[in-house]
Design goal:
TIM Barrel; nine-stranded mixed sheet; 13 strands; 21% strand; Enolase_C-like
Amino acid sequence: MKIVRIETFPLFHRLEKPYGDANGFKRYRTCYLIRIITESGIDGWGECVDWLPALHVGFTKRIIPFLLGKQAGSRLSLVRTIQKWHQRAASAVSMALTEIAAKAADCSVCELWGGRYREEIPVYASFQSYSDSPQWISRSVSNVEAQLKKGFEQIKVKIGGTSFKEDVRHINALQHTAGSSITMILDANQSYDAAAAFKWERYFSEWTNIGWLEEPLPFDQPQDYAMLRSRLSVPVAGGENMKGPAQYVPLLSQRCLDIIQPDVMHVNGIDEFRDCLQLARYFGVRASAHAYDGSLSRLYALFAQACLPPWSKMKNDHIEPIEWDVMENPFTDLVSLQPSKGMVHIPKGKGIGTEINMEIVNRYKWDGSAY
């Protein structure tokens, strides 16, 4: 299966209103799709996110010339070379070559990986809670209410981007709106030190619906993570920027996390992403993929979760949920899956089992201008 053509699709959308987290406001969303085509006509799609000018130059000047003429079945060695140049680009290539392998074998991605344990996966609605409005709390509450009406039973909201007192006011308002039957995840984006993060414990002891506390501290403080995990009454999660299982090993060995959160687009390819999930099972901790930046990478996270052994024997709580971006972002619809009552059914067709929405691709193609 010789690679004969590679197409690129840099996509850009400027937001109507900025939204954000503790790292600041987002004013646009981007996506970079690639399509690898073999001499037999079998194709596969990949996705990554980074600064579009750098990605486009990297693909057109180096990665595409390197891949042309290579065998699509040599995924591991090709991805290993590309990750030395650009890790996120390597992840996109990994996805595309995985789909080609599945189509060549006349099966789905899940079947290529040995088959699925389950037909559907739970997802949680992921919010960027902060806005530049003085009434940001009421706006956040309205956004959450709208998604709860669509059937979501788990949500993730942001903390750590404003004063502790104001964050508490925000979460109390959401608790009043959502009720204790809705699982709530709090994501601090590494904003705190250990003392500030521990202040939340007084509220965790009252709120019975907290799913986990996500990335409360920078990861250069593993001893504080271990201490915090031992003292909090809710699970501690994190690791969305880890590049592979080797970076998780010291964190898991020191018992820093209850839940690891690898991201398909942040690790060194889909194979290492799956290695991260399996590593969690070996250490007896949970794995809930971070999947905020792209719909195709989220689909691969869903495939991997479908093929992952259960973490528990508890009925209706044996597999961890996957993140589902519900903010303004047209690229979330590049893949035509939609949750129903907080669950997503896994496609069964060949390859990824669905088509890329070319209408969205054509509408939002980046024109090369500065942003």
